[in-house]
Write a structure and sequence with these properties.
The structure is a single chain. The chain is mainly α. It has 4 helices and no strands. The N and C termini lie far apart (about 95 Å).
């Protein structure tokens, strides 16, 4: 998971040529922290489960041998599930921020293209004006040459 996140950061920053904003860098940091939290919670849950299974096997005949384990099983632990939901939320937020940044870059490129298009139109209009002036000059020279010949 962390390697995938680093690959996404590398792709966005280097390959796609999209500079990472401070907000996106902060969000990616939160995602890394959430992934580490999930790993810690999962490790703790596995350790507690092993301990609980050991105690259960030792005290299988006693009903109230470990009230904490009994309550955890009864209520259910949701810290890992909550952490996964938070990670899901953060990754969706990352996607939205990346899409928004891509849209911003697209609008910037569109603006540049429109400016270039405007410059091309001005150049074509200027070219037409120069051709018009040249045609008048040539016409005037031609008229003078024909008047001299007659």
């Amino acid at each position: 998971m962390l390697i995938n996140l680093f690959e996404r950061i590398h792709f966005l920053n280097s390959c796609a040529g999209i500079p990472l904003t401070n907000g996106l860098m902060e969000l990616l940091g939160k995602i890394m922290a959430q992934i580490l939290s999930i790993l810690a919670l999962s490790t703790r849950a596995m350790t507690e489960r092993r301990t609980s299974e050991l105690i259960s096997s030792l005290c299988s005949s006693l009903i109230d041998c470990d009230p904490e384990t009994f309550l955890k099983r009864l209520v259910g632990r949701t810290d890992v599930e909550d952490a996964l939901l938070r990670l899901d939320f953060l990754t969706k937020e990352e996607s939205l921020m990346t899409i928004a940044r891509s849209l911003e870059v697209t609008h910037h490129v569109d603006s540049i293209v429109r400016d270039i298009d405007g410059n091309v139109k001005v150049t074509k209009d200027g070219e037409q004006h120069v051709l018009s002036v040249l045609m008048r000059i040539l016409s005037h020279i031609s008229l003078r040459v024909s008047n001299r010949n007659t």
